[in-house]
C-alpha cells in the first residue's frame, strides 16, 4: 500500500515521503496513529505542504545540529512529577514532558518528535534521553526525575 508519511518514522522515512508498506502495517499502525495518510492523486498537494512545514522545523546543516547539540548537552534537565512511596511514577514521563523540561531549563526549543526515550521512564532518578537533531547528529542528555 502506498502511503504519505506525515511524521518521521524511524527505519521508514521522514515527513512528506511517499513509501510502499504492507497493508496491515499501514492500516493498523501508521494511519490510526496519524503517522501517515493514504496516497491518492490529490494527496500530492499534501506532500508539498508537508515538506514545506518540515523544512521550516528542520535543522538544515550538520553545523547547526552540532551547535544545538552543544547547547543541549550543557543543560541540566530536572523534571518534577508525582510519584508513589517506592519511587514509582503515577504514569510515565513522555516525550512532550522532556521537550518542555528542556525549554524550561534554559535549553533550545526541541520538537517532541525528536526526543527518543529508550524505554518508558516510570521511576525516579537519573535517566538518559536521546534527541535526534539531524540524520547524523544525536544529542545524549541526562534527565533527572524528581518527586513533585
Summarize the biggest pleated sheet.
4 strands, mixed
Percent helix range: 25-40%
The low-pLDDT segments are none
Q: Give the distance, in angstroms, between the N- and C-terminal Cα atoms.
A: 47 Å
**Inertia-based shape:** globular
Q: Order of SSEs, N→C?
A: EEHEHHEEHEEEE
Number of strands: 9
Supply the helix-strand structural class.
Answer: alpha+beta
Number of helical stretches of at least 4 residues: 4
Strand order of the largest sheet: 4-9-8-6
Average pLDDT rating:
86
Our Rg estimate from Cα atoms comes to 18 Å
Strand content: 25-35%
Pfam families: Ribosomal_L9_C, Ribosomal_L9_N
GO cellular component, one term: ribosome
Function: Binds to the 23S rRNA.
Protein name: Large ribosomal subunit protein bL9
Tags for this model:
Ribosomal_bL9_C, Ribosomal_bL9_C_sf, Large ribosomal subunit protein bL9, 148 residues, RNA-binding, four-stranded mixed beta sheet, three-stranded antiparallel beta sheet, ribosomal protein, alpha+beta
Written overview of the protein:
The protein is globular. It is built from 4 helices and 9 strands; from the N terminus they run E-E-H-E-H-H-E-E-H-E-E-E-E. Helix content is 30%, strand content 30%. By secondary structure, it is α+β, with helices and mostly antiparallel strands. Strands 4-9-8-6 form a 4-stranded mixed β-sheet. This is Large ribosomal subunit protein bL9. Pfam families: Ribosomal_L9_C, Ribosomal_L9_N. InterPro entries: Ribosomal_bL9 (IPR000244), Ribosomal_bL9/RNase_H1_N (IPR009027), Ribosomal_bL9_bac/chp (IPR020594), Ribosomal_bL9_C (IPR020069), Ribosomal_bL9_C_sf (IPR036791), Ribosomal_bL9_N (IPR020070), Ribosomal_bL9_N_sf (IPR036935). Keywords: Ribonucleoprotein, Ribosomal protein, RNA-binding, rRNA-binding. It comes from Streptomyces thioluteus.
Amino acid at each position: 500500500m502506498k502511503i504519505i508519511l506525515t511524521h518521521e518514522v524511524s527505519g521508514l522515512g521522514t515527513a512528506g515521503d511517499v513509501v510502499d508498506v504492507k497493508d496491515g502495517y499501514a492500516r493498523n499502525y501508521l494511519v490510526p496513529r496519524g503517522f501517515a495518510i493514504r496516497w491518492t492523486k490529490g494527496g500530492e498537494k499534501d506532500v508539498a505542504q508537508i515538506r514545506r512545514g518540515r523544512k521550516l522545523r528542520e535543522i538544515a546543516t550538520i553545523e547547526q545540529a552540532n551547535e544545538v547539540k552543544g547547547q543541549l548537552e550543557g543543560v541540566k534537565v530536572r523534571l518534577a512529577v508525582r510519584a508513589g512511596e517506592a519511587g514509582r511514577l503515577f504514569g510515565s514521563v513522555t516525550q512532550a514532558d522532556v521537550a518542555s523540561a528542556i525549554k524550561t531549563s534554559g535549553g533550545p526549543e526541541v520538537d517532541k518528535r525528536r526526543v527518543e526515550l529508550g524505554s518508558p521512564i516510570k521511576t525516579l532518578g537519573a535517566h538518559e534521553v536521546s534527541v535526534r537533531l539531524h540524520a547524523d547528529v544525536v544529542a545524549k542528555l541526562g534527565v533527572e526525575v524528581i518527586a513533585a
